[in-house]
Design goal:
2 domains; elongated
């Protein structure tokens, strides 16, 4: 039997619980489209598992169907890529001739780095709010697996899901501990308002661990980002970013606009140059000027 946590790929079986006509397949290019697509197309039922998975991909390519739906809109095979991952999903019925959504499952094949597979499974499972390995009709699912995937049973399938979930949690926990180690390394009670900074950092550290306990990976990352920002602000030396103003431009106060903005240096020099010239004679254009004959 295949190992539980493979270094290169994972095959997972998930129970579909909800599906609707929210997508179409572009029958010309065999691409997944939204339900408002106006080109040649037909309806496809993705199901909650596939929609949750696609929603968690960081840089997804448009999914391509290498087996489109026929008369049954919930039977299909689809492939996509995202970052370093390649994802294949096969939707098929295993109970009740496919008359009910609860009789469908998705066979998900993930190929790529283990940390990316683990993170995807963690995010997808968290967004589903249920255990995808729990089948609505376990006896029928066991029989189907024995026929279609002889090396896989429901118990082993559950172990694969949980192993990836644990790997995802471990990666996040390591990130939290690395940040804590960095804080302990640079922390000093001599910084200004040290107690206030420590309270802020400890609160974010607690929030990161709480988010991890809830399998909320984005929450963990937000808390880590806040801690990193606090460290940068805490260590910031105002004198390090101070730039002395140039001493070569002398201003007489006329280098400011009425709204307080400073004129460019060239404008200042031009103003000073004009002030050094002779005064321009004033001509009153409101009075009629003498013609040559009158002169």
């Amino acid at each position: 039997m295949e190992e539980v946590l493979n270094a290169n790929a994972s095959i997972l079986v998930a129970q579909v619980r909800q599906a609707d006509a929210s997508h179409k397949i572009d029958t010309t290019h065999h691409l997944l489209r939204g339900k408002h697509f106006n080109g040649p197309s037909r309806v496809v039922y993705l199901g909650d598992v596939s929609k949750a998975l696609l929603a968690q991909l960081s840089q997804p390519e448009t999914p391509v169907f290498h087996e489109g739906p026929g008369y049954n809109e919930q039977r299909w095979k689809m492939k996509t890529t995202s970052s370093g991952l390649t994802i294949d999903i096969h939707s098929t019925a295993y109970w009740g001739w496919g008359l009910l959504t609860s009789g469908y499952l998705n066979i998900i094949t993930l190929e790529g780095p283990l940390n990316e597979r683990a993170r995807l499974v963690l995010d997808m499972t968290s967004s589903l709010g249920q255990s995808p390995w729990e089948m609505a009709h376990p006896n029928s699912a066991e029989k189907w697996l024995k026929r279609s995937y002889p090396s896989l049973d429901l118990k082993h399938n559950e172990q694969r899901w949980k192993a990836l979930l644990q790997a995802g949690r471990s990666n996040l926990n390591e990130a939290i501990e690395r940040m804590k180690g960095q804080i302990d390394t640079v922390w000093s009670e001599e910084v200004d308002e040290a107690s206030e900074w420590r309270t802020i950092i400890d609160d974010d550290l607690h929030m990161a661990r709480q988010a991890l306990a809830e399998d909320n990976a984005p929450g963990v990352e937000r808390a880590l980002a806040r801690m990193e920002a606090s460290l940068i602000q805490m260590k910031n030396d105002p004198e390090a970013t101070y730039i002395e103003a140039p001493r070569t431009v002398v201003s007489d106060g006329s280098d400011r606009f009425s709204d307080g903005k400073v004129k460019p240096a060239k404008t200042v020099e031009l103003t000073q140059a004009l002030s050094a010239e002779d005064e321009v004679p004033f001509v009153d254009l409101t009075r009629p000027q003498p013609t040559d004959e009158e002169e």
